[in-house]
Amino acid sequence: MNNILWYKSQAQVWTQALPIGNGSIGAMIFGGVKNEKLSMNLDTLWSGKRKDKDLDTAYDAYLKAKEFTLNGEYEKAENIIERDMLSEYSEAYMPLGDINIEFSVSSECENYSRSLDMGQAVADVEFNSQGNNVKREYFVSYPDDVMMMKFTSTKKTDFKLSLESQLKSSTEARGDILVLKGICPSVAMPVYYKCENPIVYDEENEGISFVSGVKILETDGDIKVDEVSIEVKNATCTVLAFAAKSNFEKFDLPLNNEKLNETFEVLSNLKDYDSVKKSHLSDYQELYNRAEINLFAEEKNIDTYSRLVEFQTDKSDLGMYVTLFNFGRYLTIASSREGTQATNLQGIWNKELRAPWSSNYTININAEMNYWPTLVCNLSQCYEPMLKMVEEISVAGQNTAKVQFNARGFTAHHNVDMWRSTTSVGLDVKGSVRFGFWPLGGGWLCNNLYEYYNFTQDNEFLRDKVYGILKLCSQFYLDVLTLHDGEYIFAPSTSPENGYRHEGKVFTISETTTMTTTIIKEVFINFLECCEILEIDDDEIENVKEKLAKMPDFKIGSKGQLLEWYTEKEEAEPTHRHISHLYGLHPANLITVRKTPDIAQAVKRSLELRGDDGTGWSLGWKINQWARLKDGNHAINLMNNQLRLVEDGQNTKMHGGGTYPNLFDAHPPFQIDGNFAFSAGLAELLIQSHEGVIEILPALPDCFKKGEVKGLVARGNIIVDFAWENGKVTSFKLNSKEKKKVIVCYNGKEEIMEIG
Ligand code: FUC
Q1: Helices in 481-555 by DSSP H: which ranges?
Q2: Which residue has its alpha carbon closest to ligand 1 atom 8?
């Protein structure tokens, strides 16, 4: 059951529909009896084009803002940043369109079930309508790059399939293929930006176009394809395939219309349904079956919605945690594969032209969070799109570093897109400095980059990619650091996206912030370690060492909390969803319970003061934080909060995050990061390896009485299997391809072991 989501009725709204995907093509399956709807996506459909958005006024403004900030004139600093630094917004991720299918069955039916088998990445809809047993099956294959649909029925059935899109589009018949062609807008403004024409198609500056098509592969019925639909009559079995391609090639290359023909190549090269399914299963299961968690709880044989409803009052269904853990792994494989785009705020599933926050990459937490479970769950191949994004940003962000800061290296602020725009956004929005000005994005992305190395130990990748990117990132910070009262700080700074009170007003700009300092230190430390491993005598090493030694220490405030800003300030929102100042504990490892117990205690105090509520991703981050504090019972409270049922349209105004009926994370609205943070958090309760020690059951919650784990990965490229009962590890196995010595910590003791 922990591998299956199933429902007793068709989805009425998108957050009840079931997601499938191969990293590139995404579909949300509604499972309608008479009227089926599949809401489709393609990872490369974004508005706009590559454009230099950095403002020429920015560097002067930065120098003035720095001076104002260091003089305590925060208001002047914020005003000048907003006026002269904050620029145009990132582009937006676009929905492709819908496949609508009308069947000649009555909408009255019996024994309805709609399911997603995560063990196979196959979705099914089954029911009996007036004696007609109907089964529909859907999956998206990565090897064949298509979505397959198979409709079977015991009685002859007719259906009519059509395609529609909110994008500027048209349909046509091309032989036996129904084609939907379209184009993305040249401009798509974020929903929070009020203007008269938020969506603009500019013929002079055309956006990305796409070609998608549906083809009948097999049927025993009669077929008619015209320019608006595919009709099949008297069929008991029909197989259809959907393919889609855009003309996007790479962020810095022109659009390439030749790529559009690939849709037809894909559709004409397909083998029969069974072969496509067979290669889909072997591709998918090779990844999904690598990891497994079993909590040996009694399985409830009820539908997923009822299960979630019951869970609100009865937490005995421990399998719910495992199901959500598996869903995060499933979503990783369905949304991020080699060669596809990195997962955005909604993974690859978005139905709106103006999606929340443009469904872009928000890198002051969200995009990085999407990749937290990938490595520990042994899915390093699915990490490739993230690595590619970091590499591309390290190229594109050099302009932002130069124009805004007159610095070497690269930087990125909190929003980036498929075009790798790295500038600070917020043009014409009062107060946008709170989120828009945050040149620490490159640094946080380097955490993901370096973690990839930590887990995989891929030395070639370290030498060929990581080293160069870390060096560029270090150079940027080396150039912007200022000596102030004997310490190197990056002024001005913000702490995403929180504010503090000062002389009766709320500000976000500060001399520096704890997050800023922590991220820069982490970049420097990783750069030095990288040079050491590769035995590179880099000319920046001395400079990095000197500045690192004079950067501010963590500071503890009057309530025992870790300070968020340069000096102790009164927080404008004490329970703010971001916990940026705690970055050092997680995802970084500058603060740990072993190495820095006092600071870890201050983190704990800060978490207590922030409280156990928040948006979906905020709850997810806090799960991981409590896990690193080795407090599994507290983490479970947050997991339970994350499993709060949220129905479509429920807006809880930055608090009360939870889970939608289809198990998508509810910020609300839907945002996929929380799903990934949950999976990473569950793994973090059971195994940790960030302190040079492999710790088994570092934060076991009391309610996990008995369990078994297979295939989780520890840093050092070590696959770990173990079992426990009543809080004690009963067996474990460490698998490494290479011979190495490791320290293992379990049942309160530490052992040095030789493995491999
Ligand atoms: C940041 C967060 C919001 C949301 C958005 C996409 O601005 O503060 O909660 O996640 O990104």
Answers
A1: 514-534, 541-549
A2: 497
Structure tokens at 688: 């940790």
Exposure letters 373-395 (e unless 16+ CB within 10 A, then b): bbbbbbbbebbbbbbbbbbbbbe
Phi, psi of 173 (to 5 degrees): -100, 135
In angstroms, the CA 341 to CA 370 distance is 13
Q: Please state, in angstroms and rounded to a whole number, the distance separating the CA atoms of residues 499 and 510.
A: 9
Q: Is 366 in the pocket of ligand 1 (CB under 6 A)?
A: yes
Given the CA of residue 673, which atom of ligand 1 is nearest to it? 10
- Quickly tell me which residue has 């805004």 as its tokens: 404
Take atom 11 of ligand 1 and give the residue whose Cα is closest.
362
Distance CA 205, CA 89 (A): 17
pLDDT in tens, 67-109: 999 999 999 999 999 999 999 999 999 999 999 999 999 999 9
Say if pTM beats, i.e. exceeds, 0.90. Answer: yes
714-747 per-residue burial string, b: 16 or more CB within 10 A, e: under 16 = bbbbbbbbbbbeeeebeebebebeeeeebebbbe
Q: Is the CB of 359 under 6 A from ligand 1?
A: no
Q: What whole-number distance in Å separates Cα of residue 135 and Cα of residue 185?
A: 38
Tell me how far apart the alpha carbons of residues 258 and 256 are, in angstroms, rounded to a whole number. 5
Work out the percent of the chain whose per-residue pLDDT is above 90: 98
Residue closest to 703 by CA, chosen among 320, 323, 325, 316: 316
DSSP states of 363-407 as a string? TTTHHHHTTHHHHHTT-GGGGHHHHHHHHHHHHHHHHHHHHHH--
Reading the block at residue 640, the tokens are 């339970």
CA distance 467 to 536: 10
In 3D space, the residue among 331, 377, 343 whose CA is nearest the CA of residue 116 turns out to be 331
State pLDDT tens for residues 228-258.
Answer: 999 999 999 999 999 999 999 999 999 999 9
Cβ 508 under 6 angstroms from ligand 1: no
Q: Is the CB of 357 under 6 A from ligand 1?
A: yes
* Residue from 404, 364, 680, 676 nearest 515 by CA: 364
Question: Mean pLDDT over residues 718-746, rounded?
Answer: 98
Nearest to 683 by CA among 448, 378, 385: 378
Give the residue whose CA is nearest to atom 10 of ligand 1.
366
Inter-residue contact 695 to 718 (CB < 8 Å): no
- Asked if residue 695 lies in contact with residue 745, where contact means CB atoms within 8 angstroms, the answer is yes
Q: Whose CA is nearest to atom 7 of ligand 1?
A: 435
Under DSSP, the state recorded for 203 is G
- Say if ligand 1 is within 6 A of residue 615 CB: yes
Q: Which is the closest atom of ligand 1 to the Cα of 654? A: 9
Question: Which residue has 């059509």 as its token pair?
Answer: 162
> Which value, to the nearest 10 degrees, does the dihedral of the CA atoms of residues 340, 346, 350, 356 take?
-130
> With a 6 A CB cut-off, is 345 part of the ligand 1 pocket?
yes
- What is the 288 CA–ligand 1 centroid distance (Å)? 29
Q: Does the beta carbon of 495 sit less than 6 angstroms from any atom of ligand 1?
A: no
pLDDT, one tens digit per residue, over 288-326 is 999 999 999 988 889 999 999 999 999 999 999 999 999
Ligand 1 center from residue 675 Cα (angstroms): 15
> Half-sphere exposure (CA, 13 Å, Cβ side) for 606?
31
Which 3 state secondary structure label does DSSP give 223? strand
User: Taking Cα atoms as reference points, which of 630, 745, 726, 685 lies closest to residue 296?
Assistant: 726
Cβ(417) – ligand 1 distance below 6 Å? no
